[in-house]
Amino acid sequence: MIFVSIRPLLVGLLLAGTADISVCNPESLTYTNPVINRSAPDPTIIRACDGTYWLYSTESIRNVPVYKSDNLVEWTFVGTAFNDMTRPQMVPEGRIWAPDIQKIGEKYVLYYSKSEWGKEWECGIGVATADAPQGPFTDNGKLFLSNEIGVQNSIDPVYVKAEGKHWLFWGSFRGIYAVELTPDGLSLMPGTSPVKVAGTFTEGTNIFRHGDYYYLIGSAGSCCEGAKSTYRVVVARSKNVLGPYVDKDDRRALDNGFSLVLKGDDSVHGPGHNANLVTDDAGQYWMVYHGYDAAAPEEGRKVYLDKVCWDADGWPVIEGCHPSKSAVRPIIKSCCRK
Known about the structure:
By secondary structure, the chain is mainly β. It has helices spanning 2-15, 146-149; strands at 30-32, 44-47, 53-56, 65-69, 76-80, 95-104, 107-115, 124-130, 138-145, 158-162, 165-172, 175-181, 195-198, 203-210, 213-220, 232-238, 259-262, 268-272, 278-279, 285-293, 301-310, 316-317, 326-328.
């Protein structure tokens, strides 16, 4: 009974004093996971200038599915980033994995990895651009292949602008690396070379700034084994974008030191490979990630949403370290658009 009575109080506190902020679908102040009830692995997300959110994922739907939402909860499939004519030709027989969407200047920039399963020296990272989040995206081609840059299994790219420079982080269980990019984000900076920032414990890297620290979030364990998947979200942090990153016990990420943020349970198996954190109009942080619905793991990696809070020492926290079944919705201003 206590927990039932607290939820309306929490909703009231969240909305108090925010008369200009409305929640889409106001008859329901909560949402239920998963927020995309179909396979959309390795999501990446951006908020456009009009306030809408756009999500892209590894291609369970060929050519990179694109979803749109006004509120981070209800998502509509709107098409694909590419078609068979515009599809990137790098690694011709490969699939497009783990995209990362960014706004650089006036362009929407989509980084992607392309790989055939198990061919860890032939895969690589490419980049495409568009004038609008829905595309159409024009492929700019490869940034590099694994055998060109000397990093095995070059997948899972993420762009970071920090300390006056532009960086690409990428990698997997062969190590996490960074290189400097040109200001437009479309090429490697001449003379740059890979810098190793984390060991062999994680993949699906995301880096964001909060307070005095850069936080390196990654996923450890097995991603893709249905009910047997052991994926989980972990974190380390540093005051410099290139590290050294350490966990809560001051163990170095280079030595595989990471602290837990989120793990699976009886309802969701293998949660991980989160998108870059996004905020709502109340300044709250949200994590979008994939996981296997324990009731239907054969349906693939669905998309989940959870609020991120911060503990007294400045570390990101998801309540209970487990995916929520139901929670209070994000607060979105003027989100109910025609």
